[in-house]
Q: What sequence folds into this?
């Protein structure tokens, strides 16, 4: 049985330290592209994300890696936009409850701010920036849903336990990765990325 690497046509770096995102992305990209995350290339430091847009942050991360490692690279940035909170936390989703907060802190802050609100509509948006052979490309994905009254499920990460996508009664944390990848913000953006990568391969 040949090793996995025999099947790998192209190396590409996913500029993330998030192992959950890496697993989701590997599941979508398939075996044609050999995907490595930041831990796997030895990049231990966090990459600055100082833009006030998802596109700006995705580009900042992808550019940092492409220039430092002279490699093809993509990065994503995701935001949860809650209608009743005027679109917050949006691009600030990672630090909604403050610097160095946990996923649970963010979930609790969102639930606290949503207490008593009847409009619970929300959406996740993802922008992926790809730098391939020095050219930049963007891919976007969005999923609409609503914020649950309390956390449900222990799968996924981040705000998954309180996000219920339209057409479902379970949260992303309950639905599991296969369903999430088919309908999620990042799943849709990744599908567009993969279609593009396969077209240029
Ligand atoms: P970033 O794209 O890693 O900067 O994500 C910003 C924030 O959104 C972090 O707190 C993540 O945990 C959260 N987040 C990103 N993607 C998802 C997702 O697929 N489900 C739930 N939360 C997410």
A:
């Amino acid at each position: 049985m040949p090793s996995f690497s025999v099947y790998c046509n192209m190396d590409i770096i996913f500029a993330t330290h998030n192992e959950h995102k890496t697993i989701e992305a590997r599941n979508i990209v398939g075996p044609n592209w050999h995907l490595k995350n930041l831990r796997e290339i030895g990049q231990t430091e966090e990459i600055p994300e100082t833009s006030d847009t998802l596109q700006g942050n995705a580009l900042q991360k992808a550019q940092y890696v492409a220039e430092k490692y002279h490699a093809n690279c993509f990065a994503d940035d995701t935001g949860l936009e809650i209608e009743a909170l005027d679109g917050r936390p949006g691009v600030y989703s990672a630090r909604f409850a403050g610097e160095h907060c946990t996923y649970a802190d963010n979930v609790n802050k969102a639930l606290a701010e949503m207490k008593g609100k009847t409009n619970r509509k929300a959406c996740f948006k993802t922008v992926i920036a790809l730098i391939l052979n020095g050219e930049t490309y963007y891919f976007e994905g969005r999923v609409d849903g609503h914020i649950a009254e309390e956390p449900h499920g222990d799968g996924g990460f981040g705000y998954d336990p309180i996000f219920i996508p339209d057409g479902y009664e379970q949260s992303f944390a309950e639905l599991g990765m296969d369903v999430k990848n088919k309908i999620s913000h990042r799943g849709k953006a990744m599908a567009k990325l993969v279609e593009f990568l396969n077209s240029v391969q």
